[in-house]
């Protein structure tokens, strides 16, 4: 038997796909899902948890009667289990209706502690959710400075921060990877640089987390945000922030919820059923880990969840890179398209956007759909990014995004269809 450090399993895609009811749906047969950046399929564990909640515990949680107490326990468990996979404590995890809503609440919280003349750095690479909310604070006297991408590559240069940082800089908002350019920004190094200068960091991880939950503690981000519905779960946004930062920003909900940490940054109150169903995401990760790593070696103790997360990130990444490399090679070789972002799979996520010179993005989106390719066409809330790269956000780009459950056969189906529609 091999030793644990040398064991590198390959992803068992048939097992993985068996965890997603969508692949059994008659109406989805033959349809290759390449719009995962907009929303992944939900795993059966999440769907089961949600259905069970509505059947068994659809009552107000946290009262003493049995159904209510069980509902509250399931919600508490979700915060704790998500936190473990993010290498955080449960009080650092907040669930809200969406990442856009979470950033809006966060910006208003910071507005109360920042002073006129304080500076916020944003990028033009981000999804608008982590850009517009901060830019609007200029109306309150905050100074907004823009960290600009390179128009040719779409990438951000961390060295530019040395010129952007000043003694008045209080916050830096940037993305783990753009939902169009998809370059993997060096988050840990950027956060370290900002922290050394006394600057808070707000990192949008929506386009990254679907490829494996990050170790947020290791990244060093003061705030990290992503969407569970893009990570095989319910339609909830995850926002992580430390307890000291939460205390600095203060309660954003009803006054009587001050001190109830999971309500303080969700003014409308949590969606009980979807919070409880969020347990299904760790359930799924546990199942995949047990299938691939459970019998590798004899252990006297369970695998730490932080190690599970690390192993799954590697497993997912290798499976995605296997498909990402030929897709990037295909688009890079064509003279009639412009690939946005790096052509090197080792430095980008499995989200690929391009512009065709002879066909508009909306036209290609329709053509792909007619041939069984589920893909998006538009600006994807990355208007500033597309415009900065010299393309027209009004018509947008074609985006092809996938995750670990995508198969080589589906990639070949995509490449065949691209030959047809780009001809």
Q: Return the string of H and E elements.
A: HEHHEHEHEHEHEHHEEHHHHEEHEEHEH
CATH architecture of the largest domain: 3-Layer(aba) Sandwich
Which residues sit in consecutive blocks of at least 5 with pLDDT less than 50? none
CATH homologous superfamily title of the largest domain: Type I PLP-dependent aspartate aminotransferase-like (Major domain)
What is the overall shape?
globular
Gyration radius from CA atoms, angstroms: 22 Å
Largest sheet report = 7 strands, mixed
Domain count: 2
Q: What is the CATH top level name of the largest domain?
A: Alpha Beta
Strand content: 5-15%
Structural class: alpha/beta
Helicity range of the residues?
25-40%
Report the count of strand segments.
13
Write the layout of secondary structure elements.
Blueprint: H1 13-17, E1 32-33, H2 44-56, H3 66-86, E2 93-96, H4 99-113, E3 119-123, H5 132-135, E4 143-147, H6 161-164, E5 169-175, H7 187-196, E6 200-204, H8 206-209, H9 216-219, E7 223-227, E8 237-241, H10 243-249, H11 272-277, H12 280-293, H13 305-333, E9 337-340, E10 351-356, H14 361-370, E11 373-374, E12 376-378, H15 383-388, E13 397-401, H16 408-422
Parallel strand pairs: 1-11, 3-4, 3-5, 5-6, 6-7
Antiparallel strand pairs: 2-8, 7-8, 9-10, 10-13, 12-13
Helix pairs in contact: 2-12, 12-13
What labels describe this entry?
single chain; four-stranded antiparallel β-sheet; 2 domains; Aspartate Aminotransferase, domain 1; Aspartate Aminotransferase, domain 2; 16 helices; seven-stranded mixed β-sheet; alpha/beta; 423 residues
